[in-house]
Every structure is written in C-alpha cells, then in structure tokens.
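Technical note accompanying the year-one report. For the benefit of new consortium partners, we illustrate the data format agreed upon in the data management plan: each record pairs a sequence with a structure-token string. No post-processing was applied to the example shown here.
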Amino acid sequence: SKVKQENLAQLACELKRAGEKLGTRLVLVHGAGPFGHVLAEEYDLKSKLSGPRQIKGFARTHRSMQDLNLLVLDSLLDAGINCAPIQPSCMGVLDDGRISRFNFRVCGDLLDAGLTPVGFGDVLVDLKKGINILSGDQLACFLAGKLGAKRCVFVTDYNGLYEGEPGKSEKLDVVGRGDLDRLSLDMTHSTDVTGGIAGKVREVMDLASAGVSCEIISAEENNLFKALSGEKVVGTRIVG
C-alpha cells in the first residue's frame, strides 16, 4: 500500500498552523485505507471468530496499521508536532462492534503532557464476536465525546456529502437525520469494511446531537486549517 506523502505533509502543516493560531489542543485519528480494509476483508475480520486464519488476519492487519500510523507520525514530527500513538488494539474492547471499554484517559494524560495523541482504526477483541474492526470514525467520535471536544473535522476525498454522484449532483451544505434518505451513501470506491460514507455519517450524527460542531470537508489545501479555525469552508456540516 502507498501513501501520498505530499498530502500528509500538507495536512500536518495545516494542523501545526491551526494549533498555534488557536492555542488549542488537538487529538488526531486516521482511518485505515488499503492498509487495513483490504486485509480485513481478505481475512473476514468482520465475521464471528471461527478459526486460526482470522487470528493471523488480526495480527497482519494490526501490523499493517502500525506501518500507516508511523508514516502519519513522521509527517507530524516533520511539521513540528510532538505526537504520540494510541494503539486501540491494546487500549480497548468492543462488544458487537461498538466500544465497550476504552482507556480514553490516557489521551487526556498525553494532552496534559503537551503531546498530540494520534489514534487509528484497528482490530480489537470483541466480547460477542471474538474479534472485530474499530473504525477510525467510531474512535474519533468516542474520543471527542469523552474528552469534551468543541469541534470535530472529518477530512475525506470529497468536499462534503452529495445527493447523488459527487460532482454531478447537488452538494448538501447541512445534513440532519431527516436528510439521510437523500444522501448518496455509496461514495467510497475502494474496499471499506466499516461502512464507508454511510458509516461515517451515522457515527457523526450522534456526536453532533451532543452539541459538538461536526463537518466533513476535503483535503484541498488550507481547508483543514480554515475549518479548525472556525472559518467557512466548502463542506457539509452535520447536525443531530
């Protein structure tokens, strides 16, 4: 699997600028991309644990996610962000795919020490199914809620949510629960075992209902910096 290093470098620099401008603390969570989703599908990690092949898949998928996480950490360090990884597989447990226990206080301790925690989608033990996938979106929303986040920004390939095919249909500036039927929820063209855009929207809805400002934007240059700074950007705001 490959990563667009220039994109990582750009986003890392925008995070650095936003943190300095706002004087605020940031928590980062990245998804798996092909580093995780392809292996998770190959080893059927969303199904109930039934044999040693899935255990091998657990180990290989987590190891692959570590590779991606190291690339992200390197980009952040190069941008001057002092960061530390959060490895979900040894910090939490799922119950039928939902977080049952997670030591989120470690994230708060890292923040208090002046570090930027960096989590990621991962494979975890699941009380009901044996093993399962924790999406980066579920983790981001969970941590945002537990740590009292004011704003949560999701960076994707698209500049928001659409009624139909992106670029050929209307982009929606604001999406609430009543708009779910209008959405094109099939915007992920690569392998995604955690529900793609549909999974993301459902996770974010609950967080927005709790009063956290949530928006989905693209990785276009300066978008992330502006969004974190509270400036208006092209994207979709999610309301509960």
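Partners are asked to follow this layout when depositing records. The chain has two domains: 1-148, 150-239.
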